[in-house]
Amino acid sequence: MAILLEGREAVKLRVLRVECLGNQAMPEITSAKATWPQLRQILLPTDFSGCANYAMPYAAALARATQAKIICVHVVEPVVPTVGYTGLAEPLPIADVSEQLEDSAERELPKLAESEEYAGLEIEEVIVHGDPAAEIVRVADERQVDLIVISSHGRTGLGRIIFGSTAEAVVRHARCPVLVVKPPVQEESEQ
Question: pTM of this prediction?
């Protein structure tokens, strides 16, 4: 039996292992017993948004089922100075803004790791700087994670064309499997 997480309810499925022998066109069913893949480390990117929280129960359930460690990563994006007239007498000091973003991440990551969702699990907190998709893929490669569990923000249309999708870029460039968690249908339609 395998467990499929659908929303917050677990659904049991019977999974058959299939093997192809030689040049056979049709695979042969050899067993009715499924095993969990070997997951040692799961990467869970977060930007602390409500949408990012949808990935938490999936990462926690997979970590519990496989005794894997969860690496929570937050990417502090570079602050780009504005060009032209801003209406401010003096420009904001970029170093201060970046420092505030990092301080905020240092306060929020431990709260995330201490949530009930992760009780009894091994959690590591990582803060990196740069482009979110590139840094998530880099950390996954460096840490040799077995799975990335990332939330999709559900952006469609013009917003997606202009801003792109971090989850989509991670799926394209990651060397390990990626589980993209979408928000519930009613919340996705509101965005």
Answer: 0.69
Pairing of strands 9-13, 123-129: unpaired
Are the C-beta atoms of residues 105 and 125 closer than 8 Å to each other?
no
Same-domain check for residues 62 and 154: yes
Q: What is the dihedral of CA 79, 83, 86, 91, to 10 degrees?
A: 60
Enumerate the H helices of the chain as residue ranges.
56-66, 94-113, 132-143, 157-163, 166-173, 185-190
Same domain, 102 and 186: yes
Helix (H, G, I), strand (E, B) or coil at 16: coil
Max CA separation in the chain (angstroms): 74
**Non-local CB neighbours of 40 within 8 Å, separated by 6+ positions:** 68, 69, 146
Residue 153, SS3? coil
Angle in degrees, 0-180, between the axes of helices 166-173 and 132-143, rounded to the nearest 10: 40
Residues 25 and 115 in one domain: no
Stretch among 27-31, 48-52, 109-113, 133-137 having the lowest mean pLDDT:
27-31
My answer on whether 101 and 74 are in the same domain is yes
Residue recorded with tokens 């420009």: 91
For 142, the domain range is: 37-79+91-190
Q: What is the DSSP string of 35-79?
A: -----SEEEEE--S-TTGGGGHHHHHHHHHHHT-EEEEEEEEPPP
Looking at residue 9, its pLDDT comes to 44
